[in-house]
């Protein structure tokens, strides 16, 4: 992988300068937020940014349109709220965990994700990981198998987990699981070139990493499951945030009715089961049948200088007419297709005089 640019993946301290101002990405390892932390983020977005919280495809949150003096104030607030435990590691705390874990009798991997985050921040050398390097801890249901993690840990039973890198895997005990994940990350730093940001970009990367771990990989493959869908899941409720853009009113509603919040990589949140009326009243989605569950979009105009259209406004306007063939629909303002889903999807791409839908011209809507 021959890149000429440096890793510019944004964080809280390394803010990306977009057309609408600074863009800060707040890592939420394991997706778990307290109500107090969500309130801190809500107020920060209202007072320092454009008032919205963006949910990303990696279960993180973004604040857009930060004013010039916003990043310093934001970092102070997040540090006080426990959302910025290590300044050196703030961009590398990319850890997904199964959002329903521990709520339906499966092995609870949230403590593993939290232990991984703490151990990662305690390793100074791992602050050198690229901002796109991704860990995933799956509780065995397979919901995270296809999120594109560099290193996937999937529960097998109460004693063992499957450590997966690319197409290779090996079993590890839960006692050694966190150490194995960190060792894989450290091995990646040893085998990569500076411009290789993901294990998949390293020639024979998975094999070389397993060799350094002293593990002999086998052919056992992880379970492949489905993403969490909106609706009731036992004692929990999954709630889709349309286009992943959480408004002030929606954030307030969540803080008023939920005891905790888990952010998912599907631009939704999981909360304890509550009455849905206050949620739907502010535009949140609580049923699997809503078309919003299958629609995503990049920032588009006016936030992104590269975008050729206000794709979010167009997506909202065209929602009733979008294809409903079971595939996700992703709206992109330019050919970079930021935020696109993993796997097959309907590709709606802005061009100078309208859109291409799966490569076919469509009149401007």
From TrEMBL:
Keywords: 4Fe-4S, Heme, Iron, Iron-sulfur, Metal-binding, Oxidoreductase. Residues 19-69 form the Nitrite/Sulfite reductase ferredoxin-like domain. The keyword Iron applies. Its EC number is 1.14.13.83. Gene3D superfamilies: Sulfite Reductase Hemoprotein, domain 1, Sulfite Reductase Hemoprotein,Domain 2. SUPFAM superfamilies: Nitrite and sulphite reductase 4Fe-4S domain-like, Nitrite/Sulfite reductase N-terminal domain-like. It is an enzyme of class 1 (oxidoreductase). GO terms for molecular function: 4 iron, 4 sulfur cluster binding; metal ion binding; precorrin-3B synthase activity. Signal peptide: none annotated. InterPro entries: NIR_SIR_4Fe-4S, NiRdtase/SiRdtase_haem-b_fer, Nit/Sulf_reduc_fer-like_dom_sf, NO2/SO3_Rdtase_4Fe4S_sf. It holds the Pfam family NIR_SIR_ferr. This is Precorrin-3B synthase. It comes from Kribbella sandramycini.
């Amino acid at each position: 992988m021959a890149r000429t640019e440096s890793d510019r993946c944004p964080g809280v301290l390394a803010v990306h300068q977009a057309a609408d101002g600074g863009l800060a990405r707040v890592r939420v390892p394991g997706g778990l937020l307290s109500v107090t932390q969500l309130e801190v983020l809500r107020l920060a977005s209202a007072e320092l940014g454009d008032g919205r919280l963006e949910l990303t495809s990696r279960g993180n949150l973004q604040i857009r349109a930060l004013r010039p003096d916003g990043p310093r104030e934001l970092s102070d607030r997040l540090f006080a709220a426990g959302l910025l435990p290590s300044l050196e590691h703030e961009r590398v705390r990319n850890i997904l965990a199964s959002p329903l874990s521990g709520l339906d009798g499966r092995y609870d991997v949230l403590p593993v994700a939290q232990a991984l985050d703490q151990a990662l921040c305690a390793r100074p050398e791992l602050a050198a990981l690229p901002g796109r390097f991704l860990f995933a801890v799956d509780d065995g249901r397979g919901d995270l198998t296809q999120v594109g993690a560099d290193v996937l840990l999937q529960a097998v039973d109460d004693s063992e987990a499957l450590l997966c890198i690319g197409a290779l895997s090996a079993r590890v005990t839960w006692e050694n699981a966190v150490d194995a994940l960190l060792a894989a990350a450290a091995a990646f730093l040893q085998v990569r070139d500076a411009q290789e940001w993901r294990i998949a970009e390293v020639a024979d990367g998975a094999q070389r990493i397993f060799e350094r771990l002293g593990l002999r990989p086998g052919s056992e493959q992880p379970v492949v499951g489905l993403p969490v869908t909106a609706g009731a899941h036992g004692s929990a409720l999954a709630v889709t945030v349309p286009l992943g853009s959480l408004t002030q009113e929606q954030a307030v509603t969540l803080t008023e009715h939920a005891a905790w919040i888990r952010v998912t990589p599907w631009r939704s949140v999981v909360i304890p089961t509550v009455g849905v009326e206050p949620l739907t009243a502010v535009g949140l989605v609580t049923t699997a049948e809503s078309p919003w569950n299958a629609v995503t979009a990049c920032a588009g105009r006016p936030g992104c200088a590269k975008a050729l259209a206000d794709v979010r406004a167009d997506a909202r306007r065209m929602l009733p007419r979008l294809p409903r063939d079971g595939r996700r629909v992703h709206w992109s303002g330019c050919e970079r297709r930021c935020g696109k889903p993993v796997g097959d999807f309907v590709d709606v791409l802005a061009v100078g005089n309208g859109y291409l839908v799966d490569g076919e011209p469509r009149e401007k809507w």
